[in-house]
């Protein structure tokens, strides 16, 4: 069940947003329901953290409220519900998009516009949420949880291709779509990873499941689509054995 | 024939001895130098040494040269390495400490070892080779750690003190080896490391030493002159570039000022026209006319307004170089009709990075973003500086057309979606970032979107560990 909450202070706009959301909800899934529609942030915050369903919040950034704007409301929601989806609905095109995304992990930004555009944006937003919730529910995939400075990252184990030492106490993690550098040692990282991550070099750890090519004469090894490394001579046998075992 | 054999032996010994100082450098700066550099670095001290030897023979009138022990070769190696670095314009500042360190280690070790050998056995040519072999192994073994040691010293901001210390040690050793032994002991000296067991009288040694210092002085003066010239021209160029940047900034500000005036003027007209519709007819307001006018004009105005960027946020940056660069690049982007947004909630006073590296890094990041987003349907760049407990984040996000950019390709030298040879920027970028332990890079490829994120860790970040060697 996905519960949707709306907070917007303008009487006229709240009607429009409500209507657009209701229409797009019906198109996405029967599982979605609009629960709260309010002009007062207090009313919204009262309900936060009570129910154990997936909550989606649509907030106006420019709430004309004496002590809170949309951003502060979002911060309060985030405190109580670390996994809720928060989306901002705004007229600004100059708002601090990246800052909000980072600080309250905002899921999406929707620009107030005509009903048609609004509905289109809501639809794609809700659809993305629906898919994400669905994929989280039914899978047994393993995940790697990372604490990066003040952020928690969750990466599917299978998407991780390799880990490489790049500096003094600094390692670089390669995934299908990202490279992330962090402060950690390779030995510590290896402890957190399953045994199919093998060392092909003193400073490189690769995902054995994702090896796509291995040339034992030159030692060149390709992981995932394009990530290339060179194996140490001593490790070649180990990798050949692993590949034979994997089949 | 005997003499020739001796010369060859001497040459072999010298090549090896220079190797003891050059090889550790080779190991640390594998990428920085090419093969040619190494060959020259190896040959140059030999050439100096030969010039010195010939000088002794000609001007000293003494026949065979006297002092060609490891200290002298070390000085020649040091001087020639520094000269070569100045000529090739490699960053001497970062490396000088390492050179000195390697030389101090080498000399101390060789002295210590040769003294032990002297006590244990009678010195001969064999012993000097053994000393060298051990020196070579020892130096190479240390080489890997030297780099870390220098990094540690730099991180603790003790570089100058450390260099001073090394210089004192070196001059102390030289003083002892060359000057003290000669002038104060006053009698014949046996040069141990060279292994020639000739008893030398002080007259020969004295003229030889004088000649040596004369030669060294000449080389030093030459190096200082060349270095100063190069340094001056480099700083002049940099100054020129700064001035140009400032000039650009001022011009851009002037353009924006006129733009704002224009917009202001337009709005005034708009309001006046609205007033016209309101009071045109005596009995009331011309609502249909007003509506038509509104739709026609106000909506168009809204679009033009979006194009100007909010540069006022730049005043939160207190790092001057960064401010100039950001303004210049963002304005360049908006001139190519790229939608630009800048987010800066907190003031940015300092970042744990050298200013030159910082501007180079940001320049590469922004240039890449502009280049990638310009051919898009809706080109857009977002730049954000975010401060959080103990860290400062720089996020640069841009829209892209290429959906399949491989991440390693991006970091590989020479890769660019624009064809080969143009992607050096990204390689330089990771080189810059790898230099700093408290700066982390993160790259994310999303559909139609590309994000680079740089995390700067403050110096007093709680999670930071200080590690030794």
Describe the structure.
- Chain A is an alpha/beta fold and 247 residues long.
- Chain A is built from 7 helices and 15 strands.
- Chain A has helices spanning 11-28, 41-47, 70-80, 97-103, 115-137, 186-192, 236-246; strands at 2-7, 32-38, 54-60, 85-90, 108-111, 143-148, 151-156, 160-167, 170-175, 178-183, 197-201, 204-207, 211-215, 220-223, 227-230.
- The radius of gyration of chain A is 23 Å and the shape is elongated.
- Chain B has 469 residues and is an alpha+beta fold.
- Chain B contains 12 helices and 5 strands.
- Chain B has helices at 2-28, 35-60, 70-88, 92-120, 125-155, 159-184, 202-279, 287-306, 320-335, 355-373, 407-411, 424-434; strands at 339-344, 380-388, 391-399, 439-446, 449-457.
- Chain B has a 5-stranded mixed beta sheet, with helices on one face.
- In chain B, β2 and β3 form a beta hairpin.
- Chains A and B meet through α4 and β10 of A and β2, β3, α11, α12 and β4 of B.
- β10 (178-183) of chain A pairs antiparallel with β4 (439-446) of chain B.
The N- and C-terminal alpha carbons of chain A lie at a distance of 42 Å
Q: Give me the oligomer status.
A: heterodimer
The total count of helices of chain A amounts to 7
Distance between the termini of chain B: 51 Å
Computed Rg of chain B: 33 Å
Unreliable spans of chain B: 184-200, 413-422, 462-469
Question: How many H/I helices of chain B?
Answer: 12
Give a quick rundown of the structure.
The complex is a heterodimer of chains A (247) and B (469). Chain A has 247 residues and is α/β, with parallel strands linked by helices.
Set out the fold topology:
The complex is a heterodimer of chains A (247) and B (469).
Chain A: E1 2-7, H1 11-28, E2 32-38, H2 41-47, E3 54-60, H3 70-80, E4 85-90, H4 97-103, E5 108-111, H5 115-137, E6 143-148, E7 151-156, E8 160-167, E9 170-175, E10 178-183, H6 186-192, E11 197-201, E12 204-207, E13 211-215, E14 220-223, E15 227-230, H7 236-246
Helix pairs in contact in A: 1-5
Chain B: H1 2-28, H2 35-60, H3 70-88, H4 92-120, H5 125-155, H6 159-184, H7 202-279, H8 287-306, H9 320-335, E1 339-344, H10 355-373, E2 380-388, E3 391-399, H11 407-411, H12 424-434, E4 439-446, E5 449-457
Parallel strand pairs in B: 1-2
Antiparallel strand pairs in B: 2-3, 3-5, 4-5
Helix pairs in contact in B: 1-2, 1-3, 1-4, 1-5, 2-3, 2-7, 3-4, 3-7, 4-5, 4-6, 6-7, 7-8, 7-9, 9-10, 10-12
């Amino acid at each position: 069940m996905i519960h949707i909450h709306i907070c917007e202070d303008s009487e006229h706009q709240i009607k429009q947003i409500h209507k657009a959301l209701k229409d797009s909800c019906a198109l996405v899934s029967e599982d979605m329901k609009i629960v709260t529609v309010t002009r007062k942030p207090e009313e919204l915050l009262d309900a936060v953290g009570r129910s154990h369903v997936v909550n989606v919040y649509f907030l106006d950034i420019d709430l004309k409220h004496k002590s809170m704007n949309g951003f502060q409301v979002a911060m309060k929601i985030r405190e109580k519900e670390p996994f809720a989806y928060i989306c901002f609905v705004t007229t600004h095109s100059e708002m601090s998009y990246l800052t909000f995304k980072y600080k309250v992990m905002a899921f999406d930004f929707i620009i107030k516009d005509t009903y048609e555009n609004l509905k289109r944006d809501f639809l794609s937003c809700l659809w993305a949420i629906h898919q994400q919730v669905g994929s989280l529910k039914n899978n047994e995939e393993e995940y790697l949880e990372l604490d990066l400075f003040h952020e928690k990252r969750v990466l599917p184990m299978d998407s991780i291709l390799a880990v490489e030492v790049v500096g003094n106490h600094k390692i670089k993690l390669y995934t299908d779509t990202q490279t992330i550098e962090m402060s950690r040692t390779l030995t510590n990282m290896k402890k957190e990873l399953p045994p199919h991550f093998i060392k092909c070099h003193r400073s490189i750890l690769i995902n054995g499941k994702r090896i796509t090519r291995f040339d034992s004469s030159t030692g060149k090894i390709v992981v995932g689509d394009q990530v290339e490394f060179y194996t140490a001579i001593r490790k070649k046998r180990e990798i050949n054995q692993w590949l034979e075992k994997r089949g | 024939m005997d003499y020739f054999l001796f010369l060859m032996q001497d040459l072999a010994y010298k090549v090896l001895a220079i190797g003891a100082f050059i090889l550790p450098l080779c190991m640390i700066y594998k990428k920085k130098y090419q093969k040619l550099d190494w060959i020259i670095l190896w040959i140059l001290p030999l050439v100096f040494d030969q010039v010195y030897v010939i000088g002794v023979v000609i001007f000293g009138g003494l026949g065979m040269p006297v002092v060609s022990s490891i200290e002298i070769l070390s000085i020649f190696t040091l001087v020639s390495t520094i000269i070569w670095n100045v000529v090739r314009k490699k960053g001497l500042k970062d490396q000088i400490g390492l050179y000195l360190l390697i030389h101090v280690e080498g000399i101390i070790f060789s002295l210590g070892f040769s003294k032990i050998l002297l006590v244990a056995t009678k010195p001969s040519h064999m012993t000097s080779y053994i000393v060298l072999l051990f020196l070579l192994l020892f130096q190479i073994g240390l080489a890997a750690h030297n780099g870390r040691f220098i990094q540690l010293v730099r991180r603790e901001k003790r570089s100058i003190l450390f260099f001073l210390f090394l210089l004192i040690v070196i001059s102390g050793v030289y003083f002892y080896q060359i000057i003290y032994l000669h002038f104060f002991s006053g009698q014949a000296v046996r040069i141990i490391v060279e292994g020639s067991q000739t008893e030398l009288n002080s007259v020969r040694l004295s003229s030889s030493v004088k000649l040596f210092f004369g030669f060294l002085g000449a080389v030093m003066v030459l190096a200082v002159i060349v270095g100063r010239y190069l340094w001056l021209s480099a700083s002049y160029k940099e100054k020129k570039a700064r001035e140009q940047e400032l000039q650009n900034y001022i011009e851009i500000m002037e353009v924006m000022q006129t733009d704002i005036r224009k917009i202001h003027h337009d709005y005034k007209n708009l309001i006046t026209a609205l007033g016209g519709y309101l009071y045109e007819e005596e009995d009331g307001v011309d609502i249909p006319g007003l509506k038509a006018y509104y739709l026609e004009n106000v909506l168009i105005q809204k679009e033009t307004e979006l194009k100007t960027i909010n540069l006022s946020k730049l005043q939160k940056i207190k790092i001057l170089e960064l401010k100039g660069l950001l303004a210049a690049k963002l304005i360049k982007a908006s001139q190519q009709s790229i939608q630009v947004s800048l987010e800066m909630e907190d003031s940015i006073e300092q970042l744990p990075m050298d200013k030159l590296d910082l501007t180079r890094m940001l320049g590469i990041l922004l240039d890449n973003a502009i280049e990638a987003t310009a051919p898009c349907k809706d080109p857009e760049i977002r730049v954000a500086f975010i401060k959080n407990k103990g860290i400062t984040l720089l996020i640069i996000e841009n829209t892209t057309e290429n959906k399949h950019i491989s991440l390693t390709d991006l970091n590989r030298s020479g890769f660019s979606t624009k064809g080969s040879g143009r992607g050096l920027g990204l390689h330089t970028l990771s080189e810059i970032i790898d230099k700093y332990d408290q700066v982390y890079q993160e790259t994310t490829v999303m559909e139609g979107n590309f994000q680079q994120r740089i995390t700067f860790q403050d110096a007093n970040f709680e999670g930071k560990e200080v590690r030794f060697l």
